[in-house]
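Catalogue entry: protein

Sequence with per-residue tokens
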Amino acid sequence: MHLAIAGNIGSGKTTLTTLLARHYKFEPHYEDVEDNPYISDFYEDMQRWAFNLQIYFLNSRFSTVQQVQKGKKNVIQDRTIYEDAYIFAPNLHSMGLMSTRDFETYQRLFDSMTSAIKPPDLLVYLRASIPTLVNQIQKRGREYEDSIRLDYLKRLNERYEAWISTYKHKLLIIDIDNLNFAEKTEDLGEVISRIEAEINGLF
């Protein structure tokens, strides 16, 4: 079983990945943020480091999916390879922060990689409004995220919605504006119940 959690910056992907991994005894695979050698530089100078950052993420997530699909373990993944290609890279390109040449190179690499892997058995999308995202980003207090602009989050949200509306595989959308699964057991229970209803339909 390969579960994947998708959502904008601050939507609670890592928290939910941890909680579900504990609940289901699945092996968690986290987004490589803290060890990413480009992320601090990127938030300081997006235009200079956009391509490097996206290539790093693309390779990291491709390696993760390869491991998952070769292995025998049940896995839950924090963010997918598709989010890089359908949300973050095109957003950087449209903002003029990644050149067309770099973006086209990136897209060709993504197409080659994804032809060799399968989508997750279930994608859980955490939908959140901008105020919810901002609140959760501020709570976790990552220094390099201090400079994230509201219009950047808004553009990402719009791209998430566009991608999800065309996603053709098994999908569960969870609106997190009125849920606090990190602190409320009953809210986590609701999320788990909805996931189990979807998982049971896979067999």
Remarks:
- Residues 193 and 199 are 10 Å apart (CA to CA).
